Each structure stands twice: as C-alpha cells, then as structure tokens.
Amino acid sequence: MTSEITPPVAETLADWLATASLDTLGPETAEICRRIVLDVAGLCIAARHETYVQATIAAAGPGDATAIGHARAFDPFSAALINGTAAHGEDYDDTFEGGPVHSGAVVVPAAMAICELEGLGGERLLLATAYGAELLCRLSLVTPKAIHKAGFHPTAVCGTMAAAGAVSVALGLTRDQTVSALGIAGSMASGIIEYLAEGTWTKRMHAGWAAQSGMRAALMARGGFIGPRTVFEGTHGFFHAFAPSRKPDYQPLLSDLGSRWVIDDIAFKPFACGTMTQPFIDCAIALAREGVRAEDILEISCDVGEGTVHRLWEPLAVKHRPQTPYAAKFSTPFCMAIGFLDGKAGLGQFTDERIHDPQAKELAAKIRYVVDPNDPYPERFVGHLAARLKNGDTRVIRQDYMRGGAKAPMSIAELETKFIDNAIYGGWTRQAAEEARGGIEALFDAPDASLCRRLRQ
To answer: What is residue 6's predicted lDDT score, i.e. its pLDDT?
Structure first.
C-alpha cells in the first residue's frame, strides 16, 4: 500500500459513481446538465468548418457515432475526440470557478459516444453528464493552481478521470470496475500548456482527448483490466505527478459527495476567450460606455490574481501583440481592447484581421497589470481596471463576479440564443438550428441515443 488514506480515494468515488441515480439529482442540477449539453452542441456546430476540426477529422475512423454538425459518422472514440475538440476549440465553453476547468467539453462527448455505442437512452446521458461534470469540478479543487503551475492543463488531466467516471456511470459498472476505470485513466491523462508559447492548437484537443481516453479506460475496466486503487493519493499517483508543489486536500472532493452538487454553480461564458479574462472584458466595455474613447487613455492598470499571470499576462510584450487569433484568446490586454472597441468578444472578434488591427494593438499596449495578493482567484473570478486619462482623470471599474456564473447566471433564453447564434455561425439555417434545439430537449426522454443523429448535417 502506498498511502495511509483509508479507504483509497478511488474506492470512495466508486461507491458514489456505482450507485448513480436520478433520485440524487435535484431539478436545478438536472437543468444545468441539459444546458451544458445544449451549449456544447452549439459550440460543436460553430466550429465544424474550422481548420483544427478538419485536421482532427483527418485522423478519425468511420463508424456509427455522431460528430455534431457533420453528416459523416465516426467510430465512437473519434466522435468523442472530434466533439470535444470542437466544443473546447474556441474557448467559449462552460467553466467552473474554483478550478478553473471546462466540464461540458469533456463529459458530454464521452457520454454521447458511449450512449450511441451501447444503445443507451436519455436517462443514462443525463446521469453520465451530471456525475462526470461533478467529478471534474471537484477534482479541480484538490490542489488549486498547482496543476497549472506544473505545466499541465487541469481540464485535460482531471477530465480524463472525469470522463472515465461518466462512462462508468453510463455503463452501470460495478464498484470494482469503476475503481479500475479510474485507475486506468490515471495512466491515460495528459495535456501540457506549452500551446501558450506560440498560440498553437494543442489545448483545443485536450477535452476531446480526455473524453476518448476516459471511454477507453471504462471499457477496458468492464473487460477485466485492473487499475491501481491508489491512483489519486499514491506515492506515484495522479496528484504527485500533476501537482507536485501542493499537498492534496481531498475534503473538497469527498465532502458532501452525493448530497451537494457543485455543478449548480457552473458558468456559461458570454465571451469566446479565456475564462479569467471575462470580468476584465466587462470592465473594459463599462469604461467605453462611460464615454471614454481609446485616444483619451494614457494607461490602464489591472489588479490580478498571481495564478493568472503566467497564462494571461506574461510575457507582457507578447500578450500586447498576439500573433495568432488563438493566442489572442489568452491575452487579457487584447481581449480588453476588443471588448472596449467592439462592445463584445465573440467568435467574430478573434480573427487574423482583428489581431492586426492597429487600433486594437495600440490600446492593448496601454494595458498592464499589478498582482493583488488579496485577489480571490481561483475561488472567484473578478475584474478590475484603473484607467488614467489624458485630461488627468482616473476611472476605476470593478466587477466582483463572472457574468454567466452563479452571481449573474445566463437565462435559458440567453443560452438558447447563444446556441442559435453559434449554429448559424457554423453555417446552419435558423430553421435547422431551431429544430436541433428541439431535438436536444427531446434527447433526455428518448429510450436510446438515436436522436443524436438529428445533430448531423
């Protein structure tokens, strides 16, 4: 035995996962899961023609599983990879304050693919989504900031474990099989954040890779493959490998498991870019609405959480002039600049033309940061700016929450509008988008997953 924790963490999680039931889900949690599926589907359609999705399809095999927005069908692992890559590709997917992690882009592709493969219905899809998303969000709380610090992407590595849990729930695996599924998934988890260096594409595939890896882990466990029970806390376990700088605290993972659902606080993004930039964009938009013009600004200083600096602020000279549209999504100065200038930061703002716009670059270059030791990141995402103007005035704007999250949630009407807009962006007609929205609603009451085929086009 390599740990003093008794019983092993994976066994406690397996006790919970192996007894999954709709009776444990309150109406609010069930509704959140339906919204997650709706949001993921719209994002997959929006990205269906993007070059990174087409490149992923080039590595996919044929089969009977749905890649949302595509007429062709694929093998289930490829479908999960394609859907996860598309859903996460524009960084417009749901997020969890406290992680941060993106649960829908991992869990929904895995759950959909396994339900199609096994002929499972909407009840299993809903359960797999709920339990998988809950596991992913809770895992992100065990070692706050340490996974990023070690150079890994929490959505990728925690997502593989969560996808294994979600698929175990969908399949109805036994306790021992579920323990092995988690144990196997620990050796499949991967995803480094070196994409930040040049704004390349690898982060985009992390959610899809986690989804298909979790599927394989659960199916191998069902077949009899055995994984380590101490996968999480062991001497050579998950958190030792991916978060070595911090001692794991398993209380946020295991406390109230099954009686309190942290996914009730999942946030749906209003902007198509990095999570922690979002409140800062709102602050920049608010500054513009006060009548301030870009040419009036001498400098903007932002108070930020130390844990966000290495991904969203440094190297500052590079963040001032991102070289690719994807890199721009992880530059707080650029995101603030386009928010100020355009009043939004949607899919249309992150293009080759926009990142080379002289006005956007000039304004981004005026934005800097100061680390605030009292910033609540990662427990809460906040925004702040102090704009020093040429007339001697200083305008200060703060936002103590992320829009779309628990303190300012999106309504179902707003989320449905986002879905329709994303589908139209992806080339669907409004009628096709409305029909797909209705098909997603019907999916949860269906006896099998054949309704997923309505999402092919």
So the answer is: 85
